[in-house]
Design a protein that fits this description.
The chain contains no helices and two strands. It is low in regular secondary structure and 75 residues long.
């Protein structure tokens, strides 16, 4: 069996590294509407675009998207 690469996941997302909220990048959110943290649209470690909004780790390098709870987040 051969692996066939598909290009199904072309939409990218912005993710809040503080609370995990997400939005389609096309919506243009710069800051999280739930907590006010600046959104990210790519892996902080390798720069891979975020294509799965509910992912917690980068599929390319394994880097964590969210900050560790308690590292300066306001609550």
């Amino acid at each position: 069996m051969t692996h066939v690469q598909t290009h199904e996941k072309t939409e990218t997302y912005s993710l809040c590294p503080n609370c995990g909220n997400f939005a389609a990048k096309a919506e243009g959110h710069k800051f999280c509407v739930l907590c006010g943290t600046k959104m990210i649209d790519q892996c902080p470690q390798c720069g891979e675009p975020i294509r799965t909004p509910t992912a917690k780790f980068c599929p390319k390098c394994g880097g964590k998207y969210q900050k560790v709870i308690g590292d300066g987040a306001q609550g």
